[in-house]
């Protein structure tokens, strides 16, 4: 089988397409013929080993997992002898951000007890893969708070995979949403449901006078210190990143014993729950993934180069095989 492959940390140039044997399943594993995956922020962090904390997970000197990839849609072609949830022919989708998924390949192996679910028949596998990573992280923002229709939220980074999903989730729950983006992407963010848009190239949202119940930084480029003045008396700040000097987990740890404004840290658990929530949103007509570009597996270097440039809007798809094959 063909697979993206690397043996060191670095940019897209460390990647190559390599022929590897198709993996065989252990007793609780399934073998998946991959239809599509994405190249996302997590993939880029795993590829580059940056921030350095990633190397504690992926390997201090060289990456433990040479085939990259975190999310996938595909079809099960073989199951281990103790597999109970799935059978050959099942259409599935899933996610694992630990680096073990190895989904940027024609075939992959996955434990049935990890983050994998049957994909609803109504979901196209190309669009479906764009409903996984961003939705998962966005879901782990909103499940840390109690959303109410009367509330107001700020989303910093409205065109990213997380931000574009978050806007739609917040509107699904009836909140008023302000979002930041580049001016030329304002129509895209408005179509996602944002009530108000701030062009971050010409205005600093942290200096405005609006008050919000939530500030969600979906790109991790702000800080609690800068955003605190925007929060209501019991407002909550959540960022997708660790924050300056890795402060966000610490601030979240003291939140339960502090009063007033708080920081919460979105530890991204519950992959199966986020997949089910994604299906719920799509079925309700409340979510449509934002897709920027599509590349073939052979174009994996170009895909990573584009994502690493920081210019993507929504999701970048890596199409591995045609859905009908």
Description:
The chain is an alpha/beta fold. It has two domains: 160 residues, Quinone Oxidoreductase, Chain A, domain 1 (Alpha-Beta Complex); 130 residues, NAD(P)-binding Rossmann-like Domain (Rossmann fold, 3-Layer(aba) Sandwich), CATH 3.40.50.720. It has ten helices and 15 strands. Strands 3, 4, 5, 6, 7, 14 and 15 form a seven-stranded mixed β-sheet that branches. Helix 4 packs across helix 5 and helix 4 crosses helix 9. The two termini are 15 Å apart.
The CATH topology of the largest domain:
Quinone Oxidoreductase, Chain A, domain 1
CATH superfamily of the largest domain: Medium-chain alcohol dehydrogenases, catalytic domain
- Radius of gyration from the CA trace? 20 Å
End-to-end Cα distance, whole Å, is: 15 Å
- Identify low-pLDDT runs: none
Keywords, separated by commas or semicolons:
6-stranded parallel beta sheet, 10 helices, Rossmann fold, Quinone Oxidoreductase, Chain A, domain 1, 2 domains, 7-stranded mixed beta sheet, alpha/beta, 325 residues
